[in-house]
Amino acid sequence: MPSASAPGKVLICGGYLVVESPNIGLSIGVSARFTTEVSEHTHTPSVAPRTVTVRVLSPQFRAEFLFVATITGEVVSVEQIEGPKSPFLLYGVLYAVACQAMLGKGDDSSSITVRLLASNDFYSQRNYLEERGEHVTVATLRSVPPHNPLVGDVSKTGLGSSAAMTTSFVACLLSELGVGDDTERIHRVAQVAHSVAQGKIGSGFDVFTATYGTCIYRRFPASCAEMMMQGAEAPTQVAVSLLHDCVKPEKLWVEPIAFPGLPKGLSLVLGDIHQGGSATPGMVAKVMAWRKSVKEVTDNLWDQLGAANRSYVTLLQELCLQASASVANHDAAVKRLSETVLAEATAEGSEESKWLEAYTAAGTCRRLLREVGHAAQVTIEPDSLTPLLNETAALPGVLAVGCPGAGGFDAVFALVLGEDGCARVESFWESYKGMEVCPLLVREDPRGLAIE
């Protein structure tokens, strides 16, 4: 029986600008993964119309869902029969079955049962630990059983759980329905399902990261998927020919940009901020309205930030090349700088110079993004988080800090040289007095979708 797992994401560069091509973003795939696994599949000789019944078990949410997709000629429709409403699952079923019909696979009706399992880091474990009389620390988080059932009203940690779930769910269904494991087809069907479930076409970096892992991302044209968004606001059926026109391989969606992952020696550390989260759609709308107002202004903040992001990402690419071309010197540079406050560092050799250039570029991106927030009157980097980020940046080995993605109160991140530096940041966050910061267990995992 197949299973498919997809990683969560952390956008560390390109917030807001990634909505608009040709701007780029750097999205980090993380070790938190959403897994969908088939536990049962039965076939029934088909009597028209053919049906595909999908039962979804979610032990972490103590929930069960039942969907029935019906194939009538060239149209596939879907209905949810049981369970709380879940548009991401509903449209995952609709477009996976439509993709099967599009490729002429499947003659029998079938009934599939799957389980959904999410890494604990997608959700706050605070309620579970406090119920046991424990504080939230790295040590206590490590003691939480894998795929722990959630306790009470639980908040997300901003790792893109809906995108990871949709991608793993679609991939698992397509594999079980005999469609195969074509990664780009899975990506496109998952993007369609995720967009329709949200009722809008976003930047798509979260589904792309769930499929391909750590990536330099440039947004796919909205026209690739907007044909699926026309008509009913919450469609319950799709013409097979329409899905074919949308996902056909002849049309390029996202041009791949080579990036193997963070440079050797550099790690991602993520902290959960217990401040209630932020309303990302409203923040994006306000920033894009401001962006429109300055579009004709020469060398405006938006364009400055776009150039700074490109420079920063280029330096990280060069550091990846340096790590393989000059192994000993690169490793020595990481070792020395991991024990140094980078703002005070003086380069010893070209390898250290490249790291310090990246440190300066990261700081420029953070400053310009904060200025964009002030100009658009959006709290991309809330003033209350600035002292925390500044003090984190002043720790030895810290290359970059910020509020990932759209910013706000969801989380903070640090890019840190050396494992000792990671432990140093975690310890500092756990003892920070200004607010409650809980380090998460996630690290970068550059792999994308895994199907077994």
Automatic annotation (TrEMBL):
GO terms for cellular component: peroxisome. Keywords: ATP-binding, Kinase, Lipid biosynthesis, Lipid metabolism, Nucleotide-binding, Steroid biosynthesis, Steroid metabolism, Transferase. Pathway: Isoprenoid biosynthesis; isopentenyl diphosphate biosynthesis via mevalonate pathway; isopentenyl diphosphate from (R)-mevalonate: step 2/3. Coiled coil: none annotated. It is an enzyme of class 2 (transferase). Residues 155-213 form the GHMP kinase N-terminal domain. GO terms for biological process: farnesyl diphosphate biosynthetic process, mevalonate pathway; isopentenyl diphosphate biosynthetic process, mevalonate pathway; steroid biosynthetic process. One of its GO terms (molecular function) is phosphomevalonate kinase activity. Its EC number is 2.7.4.2. It comes from the Eukaryota. The keyword Transferase applies. Belongs to the GHMP kinase family. Mevalonate kinase subfamily. This is phosphomevalonate kinase. It comes from Bodo saltans.
